Records
---
Amino acid sequence: MTLCVIAAALPLGHAAPALAQGSADSLKLPDDLTIFDKRDPHLHKPTAVVNGKIITQTDIEQRLALIVLANGDNIPAEEMDRLRVQVLRNLIDETLQIQEAKANDITISKAELDDSFARIAANFKQTPEQFTQYLQSKGSSAASIKRQMEGEMAWSRLLRRNVQPFVNVSEEEVQSVIDRMKALKGSEEYRVGEIYLSSTPENAQQIFENARNIIEQIRQGGSFQAYARQFSEASTAAVGGDLGWVRPGQLPDALGQALTEIDVGQIVGPIAIPGGFSVLYLMDKRKVLTADPRDAILSLKQISVAFPAGTSPAQANARAKSFTEQLQKLQGCGSVADLAKQLNAEVIDNDNVRVRDLPAPLQELMLNLQVGQATPPFGSVDSGVRSLVLCGRDDPQDASQPSFDQIMAQLEDDRVNKRARIYLRDLRRDAVIDYN
């Protein structure tokens, strides 16, 4: 597949660069080879045929448009070609999953797909018809999203029927986990997202580069969850790569070590593990069976001062300084209304805010505030300046231990996930795939 894509990208009569020395030496390829095949990139011909099912260039472009949309239309042009190769690979896997499900008499009805599509449209505050038009305006289609949903739903049901019933977790294993959790009380556990890409010795370098490019796109503002859904080959792809709460010892050594070296919100990888590479995203962390201060529930008042249109940075700084001086005179939440009237400011009350739901810079500020105190002003020239006043705090109780059934379910999910990877690998090996 890769050679076909590279060949199609080279114009007729242009020499390709010499190949690096290595395993290709035995082919005795000329250093000055020329590709004698010019292909029209606008010709919508089949790109691959998977056990008789055609995947067209249109299929690829419409799925690619979903990735672009999920990343705010902010993907460099040079990245698009690499993403097309990866999207083709994902569509092949998706096709194999749907075909295997149908071979086991599992089909997803049109009504189910329509209902799921309507729920997604509702998330965008649109009707299914409006959402369809929106997708078309972005170069995608309702059919592309429904095809992805069909693959996820069919594969999930197939695993529940053919894999999950044969995964056994004993009561002794669950009790062992409970005992370890008690022994580890106070140690850290992590909420982790993973993108897993399988590889072979032959394509390991290419998959490694693909993973690096994915990381770069996410660091530039791309959605980790969107990339996980599109590219991860783990069964957690359907939930945006979310592994849930884990401890480093539950992961392969390389992953567990990498996890302890990054902070919340950071991404690390590609990390070589048996069978491929993983990219990890640290979503959150907490202490085992220990109350997390960030789970405290706050009662807040927000004071907001808007800036007039055309306010310069210097003027904004001056107004922020004045706002700071006024906040220092604040005498608890009872005087917020008087201060707001004096500043012509807006006040918003919220009595149910978890510390961990605030932006990271504000979390540390709120943890150190006493009731009646205000944060330093924050904002921008465009949004104005604001401050949060702490009016009350309900501290969390000690974290409860997961139930026996919850632990058993997690162990079962982990084993189903591993077997699902092997299942898909075997489907690839047995498939008849023609590339065009």
---
Amino acid sequence: MSSIVKPSARIPKTTPISVDYEISNNVLGLGINGKVVECFSKKTKEKYALKVLHDCVKARREVDLHWRASGCIHIVNIIDVYENTYSNKKCLLVVMECMEGGELFQRIQDKPDGAFTEREAARVMHEICIAVKFLHDTHIAHRDLKPENLLYSLSGPLGILKLTDFGFAKNTFNNATLQTPCYTPYYVAPEVLGPDRYDKSCDIWSLGVIMYILLCGFPPFYSNTGMPISPGMKKRIRTGQYNYPDPEWQNVSQDAKDLISGMLNIDADKRLTIDEVIKNNWIAQYTAVPQTPLHTHKMLKEGEEIWPEVQEEMTRSLASMRVDYDQVHIKALENSNNPLLNKRRKKISVTEN
């Protein structure tokens, strides 16, 4: 039995946030449940990120779970939380450390040509696994692991990779199962697509997808129709239909492929646990992984001008979801192309049913 005891809930401050912080109009990003803007401590002048949430049950859950997870070095730390009222609406104002080093993919894209290696991918995965193990040991399922939620604290070699955005996170105390179909299409586990209950192993599937992308620059499952998720894409996810095409995978180690296969097991009961993943030699002994140059940088660099469009498409996909406390519906979007994947689509013909 786990020795972890559920911590008592922290209490937000009720004093006006303006007493302690100056709030900028500079928008740093958009989370699932609210926007993130720049703010500065009036006392220290240090810069922070401020997430603005409409106060509701779901927002309270997000803040509580993120607060509980803030003790991990690879999870974005919450500094302060305020409960304030604006225009007669209650809001939760979450002050977090400001992640100035950018997103994981952007960091890889900015590296010199050929500089991203399999060993570096293993190190990145090791850092992400530390965050996921902390969450799972604390009985939290993140449910939205993806590169856009992995940010560096600083630019340069001293930056630390950290996980953020707990908008889909859920408590899993007492082996509680989950049913809400929360997901971002590329990274969704097969059991999340169906009506049945699932558990925190959905995070391991997402980890497998992230590792796959890190090693080649494109996802294992994607839609050929321009929709965020199509019937054919769902079918391939549910049946685990993906491959390791050359030349991108030609020189990647078999150990890496075997680990991905263990994480992308369509049977959640047979899928690797986070403890099994983090103890895998490819992760645990990442400094011994071959320094094989990867195609990841090249694939992302080829899509340098259109990558923002791909991110915008994913943002539109998320915006099309009606997020309730109990369920999420995906509305149909007009057809659009994902230019980043056109190269792969020309090589791989997959039947859409």
---
Amino acid sequence: MGLRDRAKALKREALTLWVAARDPRTPLAAKLLAGAVAAYAFSPIDLIPDFIPVLGLLDDVLIVPIGIWLVLRMIPAPLLAEYREEAADLAERPVSKTAAVAIIAVWIAAISLTAWLLTR
């Protein structure tokens, strides 16, 4: 499996976690972790910016795959198969630029609020 195929598989699994986080049948601990990992995987903002040599890509190479692995172990197999099927359907839909703008706006608001609270 090439690097491009692995990246697509990782994206597909992150989308599976997003589906799992929204389903009430997912165990609570898995749901919380799935939501956090999916949000981090799809967020344009990283804990460690990518322009920092080595460390910048380390979070993408380690944090996301380990988080996905942990959550996938927490979800029952029949539900996981269903979530993967729904994620495959979602992956075929066109990308929403509006959602991307909304995510960036939320991150900017969160960072601004944090900065404001720290400087008070």
